[in-house]
Specification:
By secondary structure, the chain is an alpha+beta fold. It has one domain: PH-domain like, CATH 2.30.29. About 40% of the residues lie in helices and about 30% in strands. It has 4 helices and 8 strands, in the order E-H-H-H-E-E-E-E-E-E-H-E. The strands form 2 sheets. Strands 1-2-3-4 form a 4-stranded antiparallel sheet. Strands 7-6-5-8 form a 4-stranded mixed sheet, with no helix packed on it. The longest helix is centred in the middle third of the chain and has 20 residues. The chain is elongated. The two termini are about 25 Å apart. The model has no long low-confidence stretch (mean pLDDT about 85).
Length: about 140
């Protein structure tokens, strides 16, 4: 089986949180130019914006033969299906590779991670097929 890719579900709140600060760019650049500190401020802003875009564009979840792979910008996490103990719904807003308040938490032997796959039903079905011992609490 080839890898299946699931993109994250993205809420309006995530768009506002991630892209809202970008609206301030023209205003910020105006003030930076006015105070002749445009180069340093612009470089700092562009660096932060690039990292932000990297995380936004490169967040997805891959289902491979033996593991769930979570990609979040430069961060990669691999969770073997045999290590997954439970999948449950969570509303936690902690920093995780999820862009929706409707998240699921994957509890495994080495910790837990929250994600928000766009096609949740299909995602859960496939995870259960990989390991029928996973407790599902949605």
């Amino acid at each position: 089986m080839s890898q299946l890719k699931f993109n994250p579900k993205r809420d309006v709140s995530a768009y506002l949180l991630v892209w809202g600060p970008m609206i301030l760019v023209p205003v910020s650049l105006f003030f930076l130019i006015a105070f002749k500190e445009a180069l340093v401020g612009t470089l700092i802003f562009l660096s932060l914006a690039s990292i932000n875009i990297w995380f936004w564009v490169r967040t997805y979840y891959l289902i491979s033969e033996d593991a769930l792979e979570i990609r979040n910008g430069p961060i990669r996490k691999k969770i073997f299906y045999t290590d997954i103990q439970e999948v449950r719904r969570t509303k936690s807003m902690s920093a995780n590779p999820a862009y929706s308040v409707n998240r699921i938490q994957i509890i495994h032997t080495k910790g837990a991670v929250s994600i928000s796959p766009n096609q949740l039903g299909e995602f859960i079905e496939i995870i259960q097929e990989k390991n029928c011992d996973i407790e599902i609490n949605l």
